[in-house]
Structure formats: C-alpha cells, structure tokens
Specification:
It is built from three helices and no strands. The chain is an all-alpha fold.
C-alpha cells in the first residue's frame, strides 16, 4: 500500500510531464499535432491570469428562474482537510 501511495500526489499539486508530446523537447511535434487537430496554439509567454483577463466574463444566472446571481461572500478553503 505504501508503494502505491508514493505515486499519489497531494492536494493542489500538478503532475509535470517530461515525456511524450508534452515534454519540452517535443515542442515541434506538439505544434504539428495542434496544427493537424486545428487547435489554437498556446502562447508560452502569456500567463493564466492574463488569459483569464482576456476572456469575457459571463455572469452566472439561476438555472431555475434565470435571474442574475450575486456573490454574497467567498468561503476560505479548508486547510488540512482532504476534499
């Protein structure tokens, strides 16, 4: 069991890929695959915050009545408690 759990990532960790199409050495192959799939190429110089700022925000609406939902407060994430 311990050997299996060594491969499980903790919460909020992202697995970094160093092989296949996602490896840094295969950027040309990844660009070719995106071109063949007609997918937009990702700009390596933009950050996630910049891309979120560029995307238009859509205000959430109530699925029942269709009224605009308003944010009352944000909850803090619980620390140390798995989801």
């Amino acid at each position: 069991m311990r050997r299996f759990l060594q491969h499980v990532l903790p919460n909020r960790f992202v697995k970094v890929r160093y092989y296949g199409l996602l490896s840094p050495g295969n950027r040309k192959l990844l660009a070719q695959a995106r071109e063949l799939l007609a997918a937009p190429a990702a700009d390596s110089h933009t950050t996630a915050r910049e891309t979120r700022a560029q995307e238009p925000t859509v205000a959430p609406s109530c699925p029942h009545c269709g009224a605009l939902l308003t944010l009352i407060r944000q909850l803090k994430p619980r620390s140390g408690v798995p989801p």
